[in-house]
Amino acid sequence: MSVLDSLQRCTLCLLPETHETISFDSKGVCNICRNQAKKSDIDWDIRQRELDVLVSKYSGRGEYDYIVPFSGGKDSTYTLYYLMRRYPQLRPLVVRFNHGFLRPDLNDNCDRVFRSLGVDLHDYTPSWHIVRVLMLRSLLEKGDFCWHCHTGIFAYPMHVAIRERIPLLFWGEPSSEYTAYYSYESEEAVDEDRFNRFINLGISASDMALRLGDTVDPRLLNCFDYPPIESLKAINYSSVCLGSFIPWDVRRQVSIIQEDLGWRPSVVENVPLEYGYEKIECWLQGVRDYIKYIKRGYTRPSHLAAIDLRNGRLTLDEARDFISHYEGFRPPSLSLFLEYLSISEDEFNHIIAQHVVSPWRPDFTAIRQGAKTHDFDSWSRGASIPRSDAEQHIKDVMPQCLNCDSCS
């Protein structure tokens, strides 16, 4: 039995039963596909007029008219491009939270975009020492090392909004493009409720401070903490997805920013070049995808195939071949990741195995070795967590791992 047949999958998009928030109807169609179908019922002309009203309400209040939280990937780049083209009289502040793993190609893209559009940039990078601790701790507790990245990306721009008194923030695609946390029937606010629902893995910055105790100065965690709602209400904030107001079409938008801004794709581990616009921001993206494969039995090719299936760009047979060909590979970046955290691959496998989503069961013997990307050798090495510190975190969360047969 192939991996594709080991899990129930949507009959339209092939997303498996282990996907977040997924459910299936009597025809085997998932709720995400059903939600996507509602996009055709939306009057997008009305939505765009609502966008114009929103922008008009907030424009001209201060030094900047709105904030665009910016990673340099396809979605934030298109968001900034669209808003500046539609409202050329307004002045944005671009806020970038640097998670510590921005790829060289990504930085080159950002430079081209910033110079082409002519924007002011607020760039923030948290301490590498706290980042590596947070990566290990969230990996142990949630099987997901990206807590610092996701909380920082969504919390830090809100702090900037308060300090600079810029109440309007525009994010990119709505989450209803990929999950069923929200529906296309209503505009999706990027607020504290959304942050707590699926961004912070159920761990607030205060929770993380308690977990880490005296080992970390709690001030280092401020950038990962969603600001008080009272402070946001004081500036009468509005934090929204551009994709709630315009139809979101990734391939079309990528072609636009490539042509108009010189934005360039890049190879991502275990993803074909034809999808080189997807998740090019982080040199540990391959590790994140690999963890998803171990935990849930699918990875980025399934996600990409689902989008193209819904848009009629792939047949089911083509999507099945694509998924079978590109999923199930160990990324070379895993070795670098293990070096950062001072853990062995056996320990890594044991940790992730504790977070597997039923009914999937990973087969580590079937994992194949993936290829390096062209920029692999330029990714930063060294400055790892001391092994004694790593052992202490493992002991705090998963003490049995230190002495189990598979990790010894």
What does this protein look like?
- The protein is mostly helical and 408 residues long.
- It folds into two domains: 3-38 and 265-403, no CATH class; 43-244, HUPs (Rossmann fold), CATH 3.40.50.
- Helices cover 45% and strands 7% of the residues.
- It has 17 helices and seven strands.
- Helix 3 (74-86) crosses helix 10 (250-261), helix 5 (128-142) runs parallel beside helix 16 and helix 12 (300-310) packs antiparallel against helix 13 (316-326).
- The longest helix is centred in the middle third of the chain and has 18 residues, at 147-164.
- The model has no long low-confidence stretch (mean pLDDT 94).
Please give a handful of descriptors for the protein shown.
single chain, 408 residues, mainly alpha, Rossmann fold, 2 domains, three-stranded parallel beta sheet, two-stranded parallel ribbon, 7 strands, 45% helix, 7% strand
